[in-house]
């Protein structure tokens, strides 16, 4: 999907469509936003700020996913962290290891014939995405434990540093 198509689909799939989204964004005219979203319209163009606002207001990742795919990257939804216990962290680590074993076993079974059909690709991709999500949750749990530990120690610098540790791979 190209970026124009992604923006068009996100806006049109929003409940109430472009008119509702335009009103929420504070755009004076839904027709102006509609023109900006129309890939064949050459006079009006969606700004980067508007693309950001559309993504933030809709919660729909298709625009940012399209940006990422152009440069060979992916986006991953970060999990919400609840329980920060040591047991929860161990449980998450076990889930990661178990998930990796299941995914590898499934791959081995599906690749027995030396081929990967579309259904195989769909199943294995979903398993891979689940694994990535699991790893991200594990990382978020470790970060949250670090921040909680720093707060207990009164180390405000450590809580700020934990945000800078994250890197894009």
Automatic annotation (TrEMBL):
The protein here is known as Phage regulatory CII family protein
InterPro entries reported in the protein's UniProt record: Phage_186_CII-like
One short Pfam family name for this protein?
A: Phage_CP76
The species this protein belongs to is: Cupriavidus basilensis
Lineage in the entry?
Bacteria, Pseudomonadati, Pseudomonadota, Betaproteobacteria, Burkholderiales
């Amino acid at each position: 999907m190209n970026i124009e198509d992604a923006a068009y689909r996100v806006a049109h799939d929003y409940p109430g469509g472009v008119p509702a989204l335009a009103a929420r964004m504070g755009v004076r005219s839904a027709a102006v936003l509609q023109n900006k979203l129309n890939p064949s319209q050459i006079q009006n163009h969606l700004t980067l700020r508007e693309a950001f606002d559309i993504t933030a207001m809709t919660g729909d990742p298709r625009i940012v996913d399209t940006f990422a795919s152009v440069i060979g990257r992916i986006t991953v939804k970060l999990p919400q962290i609840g329980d920060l216990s040591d047991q929860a962290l161990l449980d998450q680590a076990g889930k990661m290891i178990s998930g990796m074993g299941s995914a590898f076993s499934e791959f081995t079974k599906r690749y027995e014939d030396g081929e990967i059909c579309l259904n195989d690709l769909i199943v294995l991709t979903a398993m891979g995405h689940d694994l990535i999500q699991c790893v991200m949750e594990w990382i978020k749990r470790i970060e949250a434990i670090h921040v909680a530990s720093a707060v207990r120690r009164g180390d405000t610098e450590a809580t700020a540093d934990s945000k800078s540790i994250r890197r894009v791979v």
